[in-house]
Structure formats: structure tokens, C-alpha cells
């Protein structure tokens, strides 16, 4: 990132020095000015945008809309309630990326519901949205948003609906890739200097693991898979809660389909016959007229565990090229 137009915000190297000891052994030997220059926080004795967003005192003094706006609404659409109120909660988070991240995480935790489960006499609080997934979603938005001159006037938008969490940021999938490549392909980075400093600070990592973590958290949490939408130069993540599953049809039936038929056993037999040839999960879902998420959860995974279906790529169970075939045991 190029130098900013002012030097009124000066990055401090303390965070980099404290964090770099184990991962980058050469930095602690350098002077403060050398550290700031080598990491890209300063250039030509001026702070870069990456430096300000990670180490500055108040980056929004120069770029007021490089922030996060967060709202919570009572419903599945953004509209006033019966009392004319549009939002349950409405906040704006500023500061460095680390400060905005922690603020937004607190917003989700405060406005999300908590389910209490008693196991073996012990109480366990289960949040509506798993913190690991939320952290990855917001971190990815802060790391990979477009900070260019045509987008630095646009904030990241976080919206909590009754059935889902949405995080929108300017800047679509970078480098000519598509959403189908997320989590699978080795993708280029839009903001390499920013990402490098965040890695040194141990706030984030650039290992292309964020999307798989979000997907895994949804599966572990027992909710439908998240949606990643790249549209018109922006990127949107939708992470659903259990309400979305409850509000949906019990079988996620396609429009016009009788929700009470066919029986699960009949669907399983249909899948077994169809998988005499290796099939993608989406092909199976289309064949039985169910959503992909529902088909995976209710049929494919149980049938794999029961030994009725096998994976064509057993060493890569989450591969987008994964297919399922009928086993001899079935």
C-alpha cells in the first residue's frame, strides 16, 4: 500500500516487536524505523495505509469510513417493526483492525442468543453463532476488503437478522478466482502488506484456511452451510443459525414438492441406485429434489458412515471434486 497523504498518524512498532520474536527473528534486531520500513508500515518516512490500519492511533481521522457498521434487526428483512423501530442495536466500530475486530465480536456476542445445555450435570452455554466462525468472517472482511481510492469511503457492514448473520465488504473475490475456489485454490492476496503485518501481530494468517474453518463450524454447530456471494465488486457472507433451519421445510423440499413424501427409506434407496456411478453431492441432491445441505446431513454422511457409500477421494473428504459411489456392502 502506498504512503498516505498525511503524517499526522504515526504507526508505533511496539506491537510488531512484541509479536515478532518467535516468528520473525530478524526484526527484533532492527531499530524502530527499520522495523516500520521493512514491514511496510512506513514508506518514505510516511505511514502507509496498512501501517495506519494496524498500528495507528486513530486511522479514521484520515479515512472516516474505514470502519465497521453493525446493526441487529428483529426479523429476516431490514424493515421497521410494529413500533417503527428499524434496529434492535446499532453501533459503529473504529480504530485499528484489531480494535474493530474485537468490537464487532462483542456486538455479535451481545445481540446473539445463548442456548443452555445440561450435560452430566454441568451447564454449557452454546452461542447462537460460534465465535471461531464469526472471528474468521470479520477478519477476512477486514483483511481482504478493497482499500483502494474508490472504496475507502465505504465501511464494512455487519447485519444480524433473526435467522442469519451477514457480513458485507467492498471488493469481490480477488485475482480472477470464483467463490467455488474459496478454501480450495491457492489464491492471490489483494492487500499483501496489510496481511503480513496482521500475521506478525498474530491477528490473522494467510493460509487460505478461513473459509474451511467457517464451513466446519457451521457443520459442527448443526446449521446449514454458509453462503459466499461475489457480486458487483463486493463480497457477502451469510452464516445461518438454527432458526433458519427451523423455518425451512423439514426436508428442504423443492417448490411444489410434497413434504411428506417420499419416505426417507425410499430416498435412500433412490440414492443407492443413482450412485452405481460416482456422483457429486450436488448431483445427488438434485436427483432426490432436496437442498445440498439437507442431503449431506440427512443422507450422504449417514450412508457413508454406515458403509453404504464410499468416497472417490477418501484422503480429501472436503474436496469440491469429491464423488460418492455405491459400495459392495450396500
Structure description:
InterPro entries: Fic-like_C, RecG_C_sf. Residues 246-265 are annotated as: Disordered. This is Filamentation induced by cAMP protein Fic-like C-terminal domain-containing protein. It holds the Pfam family HATPase_c_4. It is a single chain. This protein is an alpha+beta fold and 330 residues long. The chain folds into two domains: 64-246, Heat Shock Protein 90; 250-326, Orthogonal Bundle (Arc Repressor Mutant, subunit A), CATH 1.10.10. 34% of the residues lie in helices and 18% in strands. The protein has eleven helices and 13 strands. It has helices at residues 14-23, 32-38, 49-55, 97-111, 131-144, 192-200, 210-221, 242-247, 264-274, 281-288, 292-305, and strands at residues 42-43, 46-47, 68-72, 89-93, 114-119, 122-127, 156-160, 164-170, 227-231, 234-240, 279-280, 309-311, 323-326. A six-stranded mixed sheet has the order 4-3-7-8-10-9. Strands 11-13-12 form a three-stranded antiparallel sheet. The chain has a two-stranded antiparallel ribbon with strand order 1-2. The protein is globular and about 70 Å long. The model is unreliable at 5-9 and 249-261 (pLDDT under 50).
Amino acid at each position: 500500500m502506498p504512503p498516505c497523504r498525511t503524517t499526522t498518524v504515526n504507526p508505533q512498532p511496539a506491537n510488531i516487536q512484541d509479536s515478532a520474536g518467535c516468528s520473525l527473528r530478524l526484526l527484533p534486531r532492527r531499530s524502530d524505523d527499520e522495523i516500520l520500513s521493512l514491514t511496510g508500515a512506513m514508506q518514505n518516512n510516511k505511514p502507509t495505509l496498512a501501517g495506519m490500519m494496524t498500528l495507528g492511533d486513530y486511522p479514521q481521522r484520515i479515512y472516516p469510513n474505514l470502519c465497521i457498521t453493525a446493526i441487529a434487526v428483529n426479523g429476516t428483512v431490514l424493515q421497521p417493526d410494529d413500533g417503527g423501530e428499524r434496529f434492535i442495536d446499532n453501533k459503529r466500530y473504529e480504530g485499528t483492525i484489531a480494535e474493530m475486530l474485537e468490537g464487532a465480536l462483542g456486538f455479535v456476542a451481545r445481540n446473539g442468543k445463548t442456548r443452555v445445555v445440561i450435560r452430566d450435570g454441568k451447564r454449557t452455554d452454546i452461542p447462537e453463532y460460534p465465535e471461531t466462525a464469526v472471528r474468521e468472517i470479520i477478519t477476512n472482511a477486514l483483511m481482504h476488503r478493497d482499500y483502494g481510492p474508490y472504496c475507502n469511503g465505504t465501511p464494512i457492514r455487519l447485519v444480524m437478522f433473526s435467522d442469519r448473520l451477514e457480513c458485507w465488504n467492498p471488493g469481490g473475490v480477488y485475482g480472477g478466482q470464483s467463490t467455488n475456489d474459496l478454501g480450495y485454490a491457492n489464491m492471490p492476496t489483494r492487500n499483501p502488506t496489510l496481511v503480513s503485518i496482521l500475521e506478525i501481530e498474530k491477528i490473522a494468517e494467510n493460509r487460505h484456511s478461513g473459509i474451511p474453518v467457517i464451513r466446519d463450524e457451521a457443520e459442527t454447530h448443526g446449521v446449514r452451510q454458509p453462503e459466499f456471494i461475489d457480486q458487483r465488486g463486493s463480497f457477502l457472507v451469510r452464516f445461518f443459525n438454527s432458526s433458519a433451519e427451523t423455518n425451512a421445510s423439514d426436508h428442504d423440499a423443492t417448490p411444489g414438492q410434497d413434504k411428506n413424501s417420499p419416505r426417507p427409506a425410499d430416498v435412500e434407496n433412490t440414492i443407492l441406485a443413482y450412485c452405481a456411478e460416482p456422483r457429486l453431492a450436488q448431483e445427488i441432491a438434485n436427483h432426490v429434489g432436496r437442498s445440498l445441505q439437507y442431503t449431506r446431513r440427512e443422507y450422504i454422511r449417514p450412508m457413508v458412515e454406515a458403509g453404504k457409500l464410499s468416497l472417490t477421494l477418501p484422503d480429501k473428504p472436503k474436496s469440491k471434486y469429491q464423488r460418492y459411489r455405491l459400495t459392495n456392502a450396500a
